[in-house]
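We were asked to recover a plausible sequence for a given structure. The inputs and outputs are reproduced exactly as logged, with field labels preserved.

PROBLEM: sequence recovery
POSITIONS: 439
GIVEN STRUCTURE:
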């Protein structure tokens, strides 16, 4: 390459610096302003929330004997210590002791958290103050039915709590429009069958199940329906900057506070794409999102608006494992034969655990094929990479060297190419004209 620009992409807990063509488009939202004093901002929002009385007033009125506070699992970079510490301060001021509270990690169908992950998510002090448990979707003794048509069961500790508080992170979500809000209940706290229906073949195949879209999005609508049945007394969500600092705190009514956060996140994370590119370089968002290949698929799918049917997508991810056992079994069974996989799930009528993530990956494969999906990774061996329907980035040496060589070679071989890079991966939403927040 002749003239270049340096662009850094998230990879694991660090970044990879690449020399991109000077004319490459850097697709990223505007600079997100960090809150100058997150603790004060959080306290202020809890006292003066959106469409709801302050948390202290709510607790004083309800006089709860039990309080359930949900948090996201390790795959979301949520500043849980900030949020939960502020919540407990308000509850204590209302006469609610720590002993009345339980923190429920809303795992959905993810595995239970490890001790190390809990330390990362909450720190030691909060764990010493409050009981912490994982939601376990497969444990039918830990959930209670709330609906028969269709059948839905919800974590019993949360359902039976006198005061129900949901926390989470609002960011673009490649299926549900945005994370946060109602997702802290569904799929975060529901039973296995509900999660499977939430991620069913028809739902995942709906073109409205995409990032940034709420109106008509079946994932969003099902999650909201369940959360309304359960009832959430108070919501505390956060938006973050590119370097993971709090940018906004949204508290109060589950729906109104969530939508307020979505409006800000849409403004902060959107990048315009007027026409597709020949080469798109992106990442899985760095730690903790690129811990496994399962989460890596999000970065692939959010790049779709930048791809035409002859594009090459160069995907960087530091993952060292494919995912949970059921997800691995799908690749053991179908490998890279994604068309056979799609035929199977279309005809089976049964939603197998984690099949939705492979189905979402096929959106990319239908557009550019396995040969167009180039995977740059040092954590999985080449045979494993070939099994998960990607093309391993060729060459020798560490991933950074192989990626740079691939880009240099591509640019040299395609002088009239259009190149784009998405430094934040799935945390950047490529703007689509039909995107709307209306629920």
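RECOVERED SEQUENCE:
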């Amino acid at each position: 390459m002749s003239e270049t620009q340096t662009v850094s992409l998230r990879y694991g807990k660090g970044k990879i610096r690449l020399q991109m063509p000077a004319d490459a488009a850097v697709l990223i939202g505007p600079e997100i302003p960090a809150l100058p004093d997150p603790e004060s901002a959080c306290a202020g929002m809890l006292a003066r929330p959106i469409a709801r009385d302050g948390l202290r007033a709510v607790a004083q009125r309800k006089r709860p004997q039990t309080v359930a506070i949900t948090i996201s699992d390790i795959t979301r970079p949520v500043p849980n210590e900030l949020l939960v510490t502020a919540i407990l301060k308000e509850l204590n001021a209302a006469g609610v002791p720590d002993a009345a509270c339980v923190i429920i990690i809303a795992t959905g169908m993810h595995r239970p958290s490890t001790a190390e992950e809990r330390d990362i998510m909450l720190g030691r002090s909060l764990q010493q103050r409050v009981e912490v448990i994982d939601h376990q979707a497969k444990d039918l003794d830990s959930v209670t039915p709330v609906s028969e048509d269709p059948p839905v069961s919800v974590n019993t500790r949360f359902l039976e709590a006198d005061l129900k508080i949901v926390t989470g992170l609002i960011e673009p979500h490649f299926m549900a429009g945005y994370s946060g809000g109602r997702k802290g209940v569904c799929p975060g706290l529901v039973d296995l069958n509900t999660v499977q229906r939430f991620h069913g073949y028809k739902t995942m195949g709906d073109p409205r199940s995409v990032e940034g879209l709420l109106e008509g999005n079946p994932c969003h609508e099902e999650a909201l329906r369940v959360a309304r049945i359960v009832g959430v007394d108070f919501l505390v969500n956060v938006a973050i900057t590119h370097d993971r600092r709090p940018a906004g705190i949204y508290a109060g009514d589950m729906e109104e506070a969530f939508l307020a956060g979505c409006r800000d996140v849409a403004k902060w994370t959107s990048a315009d794409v007027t026409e597709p590119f020949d080469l798109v370089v992106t990442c899985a968002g760095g730690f903790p999102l690129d811990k496994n290949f399962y989460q890596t698929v999000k970065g692939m799918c959010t790049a779709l608006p930048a791809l035409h049917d002859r594009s090459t997508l160069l995907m960087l991810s530091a993952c060292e494992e494919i995912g949970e056992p059921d997800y691995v079994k799908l690749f053991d069974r179908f490998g890279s034969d994604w068309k056979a996989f799609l035929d199977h799930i279309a005809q089976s009528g049964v939603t197998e655990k984690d099949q939705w993530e492979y189905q979402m990956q096929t959106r990319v494969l239908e557009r550019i094929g396995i040969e167009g999906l180039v995977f740059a990774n040092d954590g999985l061996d080449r045979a494993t990479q070939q099994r998960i329907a990607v093309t391993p980035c060729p060459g020798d040496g560490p991933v950074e060297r192989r990626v740079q060589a691939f880009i240099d070679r591509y640019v040299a071989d395609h002088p009239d190419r259009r190149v784009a890079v998405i430094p934040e991966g799935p945390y950047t939403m490529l703007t689509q004209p039909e995107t709307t927040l209306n629920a």
